[in-house]
């Protein structure tokens, strides 16, 4: 029954955004839902999540507020969440970027009767802290996604090669899980020497740091970036230094620059976790729970890879901000 209810809302949403004028009846009191991320819409990835949040709010006739600090800032994210709790939000969706700090906020919200779902990233499988009582997780399995993209590149990585993982947010549990999946596959299957490098969220520093690593490690055969903040400067480097065919690259998430690089053959593939759904579905599930007591359910938003063969199909949607 829950799946049918969710599907019905999604169909109505698609009709509405396509211009058919379909709208769900507004609640007697306008509800307010917060989606609070560890990074704001200045990151191309989170700009798409924000679009999903805003579209869900329009379709459902509720206030849907997306918030996140300019860069990964756990104390700032915690403060935003506490402000939402104090505002007596009808529901909160939050990325569990730090299980200890965010877990405490979630327990506080649930203790005050506010429904909470986790989006984008959750605590790692080996987390040994107190249980985090969010009601559902809406996002990708980061660890499995890392393993999948590593397997995709296996035939292009020689035995014993040096492989670089660009970490634009070291310590982020989701990115660390991606890196762990990549590392496990490549060390087991190729006996690769895998290095993680803090490239920061500054594109100039990222470019310089990556170039310095490659200069010191000329046997590097593959580069994995974990999102657009790492991919954009890496693609610039591959173009400028004419590394196509010498250094294979894969990434995570979609942005116009990465899609263009895939079409040009500079990037082999990127993982598509359909982050628009993370914003949209989180608001929908919180609304359905608040209005109809329909329990939120886990929703895996992404398992696929975008390659040269499929890039053109998603390019226009990337440019429109939906992918």
Question: Can you characterise this structure?
Answer:
With 323 residues, the chain is an alpha/beta fold. The chain has two domains: 2-140 and 273-306 and 315-320, Rossmann fold, CATH 3.40.50; 142-272, Rossmann fold (3-Layer(aba) Sandwich), CATH 3.40.50.2300. Helices cover 47% and strands 17% of the residues. The chain has eleven helices and twelve strands. The strands form two sheets. A six-stranded parallel β-sheet has the order 2-1-3-4-5-11, with helices on both faces. It has a six-stranded mixed β-sheet with strand order 7-6-8-9-10-12, sandwiched between helices. Helix 4 links the parallel strand 3 (91-94) and strand 4. Helix 3 (74-86) packs parallel to helix 4 (99-111). The longest helix is centred in the middle third of the chain and has 18 residues, at 173-190. The protein is globular, with a radius of gyration of 20 Å. 49% of the residues are buried.
The biggest beta sheet, please? 6 strands, parallel
Report the C-alpha radius of gyration, rounded: 20 Å
Structural class: alpha/beta
Residue share in helix: 40-55%
- Looking at CATH, the homologous superfamily of the largest domain is Response regulator
Order of helices and strands: HEHEHEHEEHEHEHEHEHEHEEH
What gross morphology would you assign? globular
Q: What is the terminal separation in angstroms? A: 28 Å
CATH class of the largest domain: Alpha Beta
Number of helices: 11
DSSP strand tally? 12
Uncertain segments are 1-8, 13-22
Q: What's the domain count?
A: 2
Beta-strand share of residues: 15-25%
User: What's the arrangement of strands in the largest beta sheet?
Assistant: 2-1-3-4-5-11
Mean pLDDT: 91
Question: What is the CATH-assigned architecture of the largest domain?
Answer: 3-Layer(aba) Sandwich
The CATH topology of the largest domain corresponds to Rossmann fold
């Amino acid at each position: 029954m829950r799946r049918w209810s969710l599907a019905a809302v999604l169909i109505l949403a698609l009709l509405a955004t396509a211009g058919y004028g379909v709208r769900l009846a507004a609640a007697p009191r306008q509800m307010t839902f917060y989606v609070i991320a560890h990074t704001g819409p200045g990151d191309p990835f989170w700009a798409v999540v924000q679009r999903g949040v805003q579209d869900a709010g329009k379709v459902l006739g509720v206030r849907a507020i997306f918030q996140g600090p300019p860069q990964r800032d756990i104390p700032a994210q915690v403060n935003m969440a506490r402000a939402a709790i104090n505002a007596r939000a009808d529901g909160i969706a939050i990325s569990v970027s730090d299980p200890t700090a965010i877990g405490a906020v979630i327990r506080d919200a649930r203790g005050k009767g506010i429904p909470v779902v986790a989006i984008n990233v959750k605590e790692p499988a080996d987390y040994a802290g107190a249980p985090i009582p969010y009601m559902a997780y809406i996002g990708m399995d980061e660890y499995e996604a890392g393993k999948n993209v590593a397997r995709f590149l296996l035939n292009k990585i020689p035995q014993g090669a040096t492989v670089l993982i660009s970490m634009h947010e070291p310590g982020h549990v989701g990115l660390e899980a991606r890196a762990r999946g990549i590392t496990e596959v490549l060390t087991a299957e190729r006996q690769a020497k895998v290095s993680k490098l803090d490239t920061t969220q500054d594109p100039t520093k990222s470019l310089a740091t990556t170039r310095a690593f490659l200069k010191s490690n000329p046997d590097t055969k593959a580069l994995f970036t974990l999102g657009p903040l790492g991919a954009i400067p890496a693609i610039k480097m591959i173009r400028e230094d004419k590394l196509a065919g010498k250094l294979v690259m894969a990434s995570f998430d979609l942005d116009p620059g990465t899609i263009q690089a895939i079409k040009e053959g500079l990037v082999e593939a990127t993982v598509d976790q359909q982050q628009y759904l993370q914003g949209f579905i989180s608001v929908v599930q919180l609304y359905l729970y608040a209005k109809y007591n329909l329990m939120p359910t886990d929703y895996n938003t992404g398992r696929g890879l975008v390659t040269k063969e499929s890039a053109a199909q998603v390019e226009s949607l990337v440019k429109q901000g939906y992918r």
